[in-house]
Structure prediction request, 316 residues.
Amino acid sequence: MLKTAICDLFGIKHPIIQGGMAHVGTAELVSAVSNAGGLGIIGAGHYEPDWVRQQIRLTRERTTKPFGLNIPLTSPFAEPVVQVALEEKIAIIATGAGNPDAYMPRFKRAGMKVIPVVASVAVAKHLEQAGADAIVAEGMESGGHVGETTTIALVPQVVDSVRIPVVAAGGIADGRGLAAALALGAQGIQMGTRFVLSTECIAHPQYKQKLLEADDQATLVTRQSVGRPLRTLRNKLAEQVRELEKAGIAKEELELFDRGRMYLGLIEGDIDEGSLLAGQIAGMIKEIKPVKAIIEEMVAEAERIISNLRNFRKKG
Ligand SMILES: Cc1cc2nc3c(=O)[nH]c(=O)nc-3n(C[C@H](O)[C@H](O)[C@H](O)COP(=O)(O)O)c2cc1C
Prediction:
């Protein structure tokens, strides 16, 4: 059994977290991950507080296991969603984009465990000081908003810089990735793309199909020019955005152009005009599976690999 500090911290069986995901990190997926012994995290995205409250309650109807809530602090509803989290007594908060400093004291006073997602050592150190209980170090391989450092370079540097447990994210989708993350000093992993390709995820079948067809070169990063780099599948929209950026589109204009695109891609399945968030590891995933199978196969494979590595010299 792979038991780590992350399992103890969150009261979970396996050191596997489903990263909060806007639009698709809903009660269906979150409860499936938590019921399978991982940690499911609701993605509040930019949804209104009532929607978030409903997802929390739906999740509680489906699982008695621990789960968390991801709040992108850039959401126009960040403050009322934080209020909902406090009222609903959410135990675990994951913060995405934006600086959680202003909210930290309230989270800590309420006894919440806080696990921010970071893309650099400096931010990891700062958030440890501010009271984070663990850190997700997310490499630029990830689906969604990304930094500039790869998982394999970022994770050991964050591990060396903080005392709290570190979770590796970005480019992990099987037992090999889990074992590698543990070897880098992480106490667990967080996945997004692999969980989108689960039976329980409500993502549109056309988007899932496009992910299944992806190869290792299928994703690209756009929106760097406005300071919000986003990794998606290459499609008509991504190419269009790339051209607009080359032509020097202003931040506000691009934001207007982008409005509703994620929902269009992930939920309505418009694979041309919608934004299809995806990590580089999409190319490795060839099957949609139930969450329980994803988690159990992954843990078994990692255990096998770790034990084989231990016997490496004997065998060689
Ligand atoms: C469809 C999708 C939506 C995402 N939405 C969010 C989000 O709202 N907040 C956040 O912090 N991370 C978000 N992420 C990032 C994931 O939580 C996770 O850290 C990342 O996907 C890990 O990399 P991987 O895709 O290689 O597994 C999203 C990722 C995907 C694929």
